[in-house]
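Example complex used in Figure S2.
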Amino acid sequence: MKILAVDTATESCGVALSEGEHLIGEITNRRKQTHSRHVLGMIDALLRMCGMGAGDVEAYAVSAGPGSFTGLRIGISTVKGMVLASGKDMVGISVPDVLAAQVFPGSCPVCVLPVCVLTDARKGEVYTARYRYESGMLKKISGEQVLAPEEALSGIEGDCLFVGRGAELYRSRIEGKLGKHARFAPPECNIIRASVLARLAWQRLRKGERDNAAAFGPRYIRKSDAELGFGKK
Amino acid sequence: MKILAVDTATESCGVALSEGEHLIGEITNRRKQTHSRHVLGMIDALLRMCGMGAGDVEAYAVSAGPGSFTGLRIGISTVKGMVLASGKDMVGISVPDVLAAQVFPGSCPVCVLPVCVLTDARKGEVYTARYRYESGMLKKISGEQVLAPEEALSGIEGDCLFVGRGAELYRSRIEGKLGKHARFAPPECNIIRASVLARLAWQRLRKGERDNAAAFGPRYIRKSDAELGFGKK
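Predicted assembly (466 residues):
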């Protein structure tokens, strides 16, 4: 099954084409521009690079959030448009699930390091979720929350692996609280990879899971600026 | 320092642009075509996507091998051409070093799983090298060799993480010999990532290390078909 995965949840923009769990091609872009300016061009370039057209895509994957309000809408709108035009399936995948999977080195039986995902939520906050290895599989052990960086570290006492742009942004504060217990992923693991989004999507699709494209919307967690402002008036 | 990394060592083709250790953009292509047909177009597309030109590149990185004879020559020739034309620096990076770094999840203090890199050397053989974590750092504990898959497993007794296309190709034979001790990286880690090539290049460049572009050549390990054939005549 050929899967086209689109990520616009954070400052980076990524597209990938896979055949089941096997990657065919991927383009990742961290240029600081609104994603609406390049995501369609990247999809077109990816399909051409792989010698395919939109008609060859059999299912779509998209970052569901949490993440940038406008960014998520761009990616999800693009994918929903392609899904509604083609009648193909789509699945949305949680952003922290993708980042946690990027630092999971296969089925390591001895790795017991918990993983804390931190992405930049702006306004001095992070989106966060925690994971632990159980029987060689990543298991999510918290909900997804938006918190101040210090609150996101609450309860972490032993060694913990931090991943995501929030881990880079707040590294000194994390080290200030946890010292040598804080471990950090290599920089390229802090960027969402559409290839990993495609792999997690394949894990859902092969089980027959689908999301309803017409009803699908971004997972924001936090209210938008407009909603927050409206409440204050 | 802006680094352009080019990988054409195996069946995949990858280009990445980084600022020091931080990725700006990356394109990965597994389309089965000779790399000479697309590598220059991919470099051009990457630079345009990142809003840059060849003149912005401050150093070059390239996969040094071992790998495909023709593939390595295409990437190395392209990079040497750009280096000689621009007067910028270049470094070559070992292919197994890149693949091992792709499954290294940060500074995990408990991960003691050795890593065995296996890439497809054709003719029923693999290029291989082994790594171990020491004090949270990856350390190479073998030379690079070309061997039959079974020979490449010699001496491995406990758990071991296998990475590279050779691990996919010969998975059943590896499992046949090692059973549950054999662990496998996620599929997207088996493809060489130019982003990781760029990060390893940055680690050398920041220490002032450079390779001599005029003298630089691919690291083949095995003789070419022509040389092997010539010896038989």
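The mean pLDDT of chain B is 92. The domain at 103-190 of chain B is CATH 3.30.420.40 (Nucleotidyltransferase; domain 5).
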